[in-house]
Amino acid sequence: MAGESHNTLPPPEFDRPVKVLIVVAPYYRDIADGLIGGAQAVLEKAGATYELIEVPGALEVPTAIGQAFRMSNFDGFVALGCVIRGETTHYETVCNDSSRALALLGLQGVCIGNGILTVENHEQAAARANPAGQDKGGGAAVAALHLIALARRWGGQKREVGLRPAGDDEILLAGSPRDGDSRA
């Protein structure tokens, strides 16, 4: 759109090393390669180390990230892939389910930059994947880095959420004043 303005945040700076896992579904290899190149460039510029793994499709990306989050020591994750609309409802299923799964992982504290493209055609995908163009792979890496920075900033401030037993017959809201927290 003419006159449209976009604001992008620069990558944060870190005082300790950052380790990121890039998980890519390379179904459209040329698109995946562009996304990977953009993500790698951002991570290298930020001084982060990274590993790259491939999974069969966009639906497997969140599962791989969930496994790595539980069983490894990565600070964050970059999810990459491309889903191009076809003739069936499979497009909606893959787009919605992969996005929802990544969002649920994020709400559990996983630092994820979502770079899974959901587009109408290959031309749109190519424009978004191009590191010299829209650079959605690089954008996903920047998002992951910002979430890692927030997690490190708030890392010592963990509080329970919800209800938990407080004593014999009493239930307190976690984080309530009786729970040792002066903030009500």
What's the helix and strand layout?
Blueprint: E1 19-24, H1 29-45, E2 49-54, H2 60-71, E3 76-84, H3 90-107, E4 112-119, H4 122-129, H5 136-153, E5 163-165, E6 171-173
Parallel strand pairs: 1-2, 1-3, 3-4
Antiparallel strand pairs: 5-6
Helix pairs in contact: 1-4, 1-5, 2-3
What does this structure look like?
The protein is α/β, with parallel strands linked by helices. The chain has two domains: 135 residues, 3-Layer(aba) Sandwich (Rossmann fold); 27 residues, no CATH class. Helices cover 40% and strands 19% of the residues. The protein has five helices and six strands, in the order βαβαβαβααββ. The chain has a four-stranded parallel sheet with strand order 2-1-3-4, with helices on both faces. The longest helix has 18 residues. The protein is globular and about 55 Å long. The C terminus is likely disordered.
Taking pLDDT < 50 over at least 5 consecutive residues as the criterion, the unreliable ranges are: 176-184
Mean model confidence by pLDDT? 88
Number of individual domains: 2
SS-based class: alpha/beta
- List how many beta strands DSSP finds: 6
CATH topology of the largest domain: Rossmann fold
- SS summary, helix count: 5
> How many strands, what sense, and barrel or not for the largest sheet?
4 strands, parallel
The helix fraction, in percent, is: 25-40%
CATH class of the largest domain: Alpha Beta
Write the CATH homologous superfamily of the largest domain: Lumazine/riboflavin synthase
By CATH, the architecture of the largest domain is named 3-Layer(aba) Sandwich
What fraction strand? 15-25%
So what's the overall shape?
Answer: globular
